[in-house]
Amino acid sequence: MNDSLKTLLAFISGAAAGAAIGILLAPEKGAETRRKLLERAKDMSDGLTDAAKEKYDEFLEWKDTMIDGAEETVKSTVNNGMHSAGQTYNKVENKVKNAQL
After folding, report:
1. For 44-58, what is each residue's pLDDT tens digit?
2. Residue from 29, 31, 49, 27 nearest 39 by CA
């Protein structure tokens, strides 16, 4: 887990704890307190959902970058191998021709 996600989770947890304590200690009716707790919980849930979506999108972008890089490496390796094989074939062919003379 990276530092920005840890910081976000710590902030949300702290905000939730503070809000819950504040609401529970406030001199209001039970129905109003429950409504406020539910509202705060929904806000926190929305925040966590947004953070998770953002991290998921970052992961997809990283994955695509890794795949593209791997594809380029494979293509380059195959091309280099084919070039080397062609050179080796030409050398062997020339030696065979020279040996027949």
Report:
1. 888 888 888 998 999
2. 31
